[in-house]
Design a protein that fits this description.
The chain is built from 5 helices and 6 strands. The chain is of the alpha+beta class and about 160 residues long. The termini are far apart.
């Protein structure tokens, strides 16, 4: 079962997140799919995750996640990855740069009955903000303090706030 869960998450990344094909979401995602952010639970379901993926692809149309490592424990799969993509849409109040970013992150997914039912992630965004947008740490602290990662109407805590 553990290897099956790892394979489900791997195939989801390769066949859905790394492509523009969100048609097969129900193959991998539970109708009761939930994301966890800042200790809050957001029930997105298939419709919500489809909208979220479309929003991310508007910003990074060539998005690619490369898996470094996967570890399983019961229903849970932890995936360490490197994400790369060219910023062609507005992100965190930053106009499109046309630059490719590369970030490291960890996803933690719960797989029940061969479907991903719960997802939480952590991504290191500080280096890309400084490197690709030439912002200082001071600018980031002042303008992004208590603000969130990316615009998404389905996950309230993941929203864009224009920096002044």
């Amino acid at each position: 079962m553990k290897n099956e869960n790892k394979e489900i998450v791997k195939q989801y990344i390769e066949n859905i997140l790394n492509t523009e094909n969100a048609e097969d979401l129900s193959t991998f995602i539970s109708p009761h799919y939930t994301e966890v952010s800042n200790n809050r639970r957001y029930n997105l379901g298939i419709k919500g995750i489809r909208k979220k993926i479309a929003g991310i692809r508007e910003i990074y149309p060539d998005l690619k996640l490369s898996i470094d490592l996967q570890i399983t424990e019961g229903d849970w799969v932890a995936t360490s990855y490197i994400m790369s993509g060219t910023q062609l849409g507005s992100w965190m109040g930053i106009r499109p740069t046309g630059k490719t970013i590369e970030v490291r992150g960890v996803n933690i997914d719960r797989v029940v009955d061969s479907k991903i039912t719960e997802h939480e992630s952590s991504t290191d965004l500080l280096d890309p903000l400084i490197e690709n947008n030439q912002h200082s740490i001071h600018w980031i602290k002042e303008n992004l303090k208590n603000k969130f990662v990316a615009k998404n109407e389905d996950v309230k805590t993941i929203c864009e706030t224009e920096a002044a």
